[in-house]
Fold:
Amino acid sequence: MKRFDSMTVMGILIGLGLVLLGIRLEGEIGAFWNLSGLLITIGGSFGAVMVNFRAGEIRMVLQVTRQAFIRREQSLVDLCHRFVYLSQKARREGLLVLEDELPEMEDPFTRNGLQMVIDGFEPEAIRKILLSELESIEERHELGQSLFRTWGSLAPAFGMIGTLIGLVMMLGKLEDPSAIGPGMAVALLTTFYGVLLANLVFIPLAGKLAIYSREESRRKEIIIEALLLLQSGINPRLMKEHLKAYFSPAERKLLEEEERREEEEEELPEEVIFDG
Structure:
């Protein structure tokens, strides 16, 4: 299931809004707008990013970046239920019958792993192949984080370059008092833009992508373990206990609450018979 992460957008908007509010309380917001400074800071730093990364890597990063705003989410509790169901079905009818479940698998990683289980691959081969695929996924995620960390380090540097440009413009026209103001504006605002973009957008986005990458890696490690347990023909209840070992306290509590509700629903009220 895909979910829009509103916290990313809200964080950027709240941070920018409070900065603008602080400016407005002390002066005019218009004084902090300078197109030349923005072009130097954003354009220059992005150009440096293009030098640092290849074209294919930048395109790949754009796809990874969407995860900071829109991400596919599946709770570990739902994942546990899914594999317990597959275990029950496999014990009743055999592993081959799980081929009917493949079209319903939205995650290519899980679908590929289940196909190998059905095809009878050796457990060690399945683990090796899936871990290699997981390593490739982590490398792609690390590339996205690296791009934003690099951009976050370059933006303030180009802000300083803009400051030097502004100072040169100002010093070159000291005889003209009217030129001092625009030159000083470029000198100071480019540094402001660079620091603001780095610390409000680029570096936080790298951090958000790192968090999501760790979560996805953890989920895929659980999937690998579940697939190998499924192949071994493990008892479904034992499968659930194995997977619960990966759960956080909150996830365990949620699973226990669901189990308790299921037990209550299974309990039928006793019939009371009255003799006439």
